Amino acid sequence: QVRLVESGGGLVQTGGSLRLSCAMSGFAFDKINLRWYRRTPGRERDVVAIINGGSRTTYYTDSVKGRFTIYADNAEATLYLEMNNLQPEDTAVYYCNAGANYWGQGIQVTVSS
Fold first, then answer.
1. Are 111 and 86 in contact (CB under 8 A)?
2. What residues form DSSP beta bridges with 16?
3. How much is the average pLDDT of 1-20?
4. Residue closest to 104 by CA, chosen among 83, 78, 75, 86
5. In sequence order, what DSSP letters do the residues of 28-46 get, joined into one string?
6. What is the DSSP letter of 37?
7. 94: closest CA among 19, 47, 42, 39?
């Protein structure tokens, strides 16, 4: 059974940090793209960061470059998103994604000004 379970969200002040985790099981993730998306009210989910499970090549949307880091721990079967210098515009529901079809349930991140 495929499962992606996010954790680590919450409320943080501007300039603070959070680390999101996505525990993955039920599929082989070492050869596919792993992604973090976020959705704010009224918008579709936007991609935040991508890492290839094999090559570890990464991509970041411009607004998070230099502040967010995506990485994966194969031994722990967990995808992470380290978020630093958080800003109010980072407030969103964050989702982890694997390949084309596998999604987590989403987790709220709220940055207070």
1. yes
2. none
3. 97
4. 78
5. --TTSEEEEEEE-TTS--E
6. E
7. 39
